[in-house]
């Protein structure tokens, strides 16, 4: 009889247990979790296999398992588990470790994994905002630093969109670079885990960009916005509403931000063909959208917090530090955004500018945290949705794209 030895990755087991999956060793493979999970499929049931792989320290198997990202931590498996192994919490811990695994540099992942690290990042953001504003005041605007003396309060007098762009666009470029490398490696791992064939170049194929967008990304986004899987959850289904509010608010605020960026930067700053776009009148459609998005952001946070508090008390859900870090950071972005607007309209200069600075710092930290914190779910889970549809088409023969010429020995 042929035997095969297993070399467990003990650091992987330890990291999962430290991230909230400390109950993984209680699992005795009864398969109750896979049976009761409303999202698990007959073709690839979870989370039973992930519990076993984690117990054995098979980090490579877990890294190549797209099902880890299709779990929404419903809580059904935890409720019915006879050993209180809490499979949903274990998979959540695995996802947090996966984000850290794909993120570089690691010290930023360490920073965003602790509350004190995030608080330190916010203070760094405040310093950066003040430094950029100070340089802007000295070189261009020549106003009294840190705050202009004139009234009424207009934040673009404190710091124009140009220095804000310098700070934020450089951060966006860095974040996109980190995410690109992370998602590329993630795609390779889950392609290997799904036994997809390699191309002649030795890499796992990706659909052509047009097909990728229309055939896979758009349907995945539609499913995410509809929250169709989230709504299937039994014990935690009411989390879906608050989560949907957050997703829609991010979409609204993303559109508003890009509108202001194009209108203010490209047309005013570059071409000088119109006057300043900001501050907009309160009745302006873009301003109304921004306020609606900000309110939805805060409401969504409190809805999620309320559900988490209740489910944690019941024992259905266990929240990690990273859960609360993301929740309160998003709340800080929404609260400081609305607060700075209120203090500007009421002309409370002593509060308007400090809250505005804090708002910019919180937004900067939220952007920077995307590849390094639980916020990364936004990217990796979306990628998993796209990959799931793509892999199904590849295996069924619907998506060729040259795969019929792939080298079978490189599976």
Summarize the structure in words:
- It is a single chain.
- With 411 residues, the protein is mainly alpha-helical.
- It has two domains: 10-102, no CATH class; 106-396, no CATH class.
- Helices cover 66% and strands 0% of the residues.
- It contains 17 helices and no strands.
- Helix 12 (209-226) packs across helix 17 (377-396).
- The longest helix has 33 residues, at 161-193.
- The chain starts with 9 loop residues before the first helix and ends in a 15-residue tail after the last helix.
- Residues 270-274 and 401-411 have low confidence and may be disordered.
By DSSP, the count of extended strands is 0
The tally of helices reads: 17
Q: Classify the helix fraction into a percent range.
A: 55-70%
Overall mean confidence score, pLDDT: 86
Sketch the major β-sheet: none
Return the string of H and E elements.
HHHHHHHHHHHHHHHHH
Cα-atom Rg, whole angstroms?
24 Å
Report the uncertain regions. 270-274, 401-411
What number of domains? Answer: 2
- Taking the alpha carbons of the first and last residues, their distance comes to 25 Å
Helix/strand structural class: mainly alpha
Strand proportion: under 5%
Morphology: globular
């Amino acid at each position: 009889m042929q035997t095969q030895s297993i070399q467990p990755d003990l650091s992987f087991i330890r990291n999962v247990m430290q991230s909230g999956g400390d109950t993984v060793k209680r699992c005795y493979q009864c398969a109750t979790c896979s049976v009761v999970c409303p999202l698990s499929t007959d073709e690839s049931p979870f989370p039973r296999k992930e519990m076993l792989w984690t117990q054995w320290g098979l980090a490579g198997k877990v890294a190549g398992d797209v099902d880890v990202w299709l779990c929404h931590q419903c809580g059904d498996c935890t409720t019915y588990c006879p050993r209180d192994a809490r499979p949903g919490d274990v998979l959540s811990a695995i996802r947090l470790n996966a984000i850290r695994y794909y993120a570089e540099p690691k010290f930023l992942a360490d920073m965003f994994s602790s509350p004190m690290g995030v608080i330190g990042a916010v203070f760094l953001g405040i310093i950066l905002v003040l430094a950029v504003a100070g340089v802007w005041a000295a070189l261009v605007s020549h106003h009294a630093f840190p705050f202009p003396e004139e009234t009424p309060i207009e934040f673009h007098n404190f710091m124009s969109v140009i220095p804000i762009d310098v700070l934020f666009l450089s951060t966006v470029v860095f974040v996109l670079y980190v995410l690109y490398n992370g998602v590329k490696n993630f795609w390779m791992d889950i392609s290997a885990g799904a036994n997809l064939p390699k191309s002649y170049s030795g890499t796992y194929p990706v659909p052509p960009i047009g097909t990728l967008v229309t055939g896979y990304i758009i349907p995945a986004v539609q499913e995410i916005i509809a929250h169709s899987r989230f709504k299937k959850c039994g014990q935690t289904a009411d989390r879906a509403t608050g989560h949907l509010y957050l997703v829609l608010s991010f979409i609204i605020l993303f559109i508003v931000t890009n509108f202001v960026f194009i209108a203010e930067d490209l047309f005013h700053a570059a071409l000088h063909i119109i006057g300043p776009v900001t501050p907009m009148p309160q009745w302006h459609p873009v301003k109304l959208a921004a306020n609606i998005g900000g309110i939805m952001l805060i409401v969504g946070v409190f809805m999620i917090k309320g559900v988490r508090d209740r489910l944690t008390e019941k024992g259905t859900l266990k929240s990690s530090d990273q859960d609360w870090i993301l929740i309160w950071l998003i709340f800080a972005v929404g609260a400081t955004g609305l607060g700075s607007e209120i203090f500007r309209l009421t002309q409370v200069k002593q509060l308007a500018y400090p809250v505005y600075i804090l708002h910019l710092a919180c937004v900067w930290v939220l952007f920077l945290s995307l590849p390094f914190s639980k916020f990364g779910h936004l990217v990796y889970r979306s990628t998993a949705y796209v990959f799931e549809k793509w892999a199904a088409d590849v295996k069924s023969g619907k998506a060729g794209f040259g795969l019929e010429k792939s080298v079978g020995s490189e599976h």
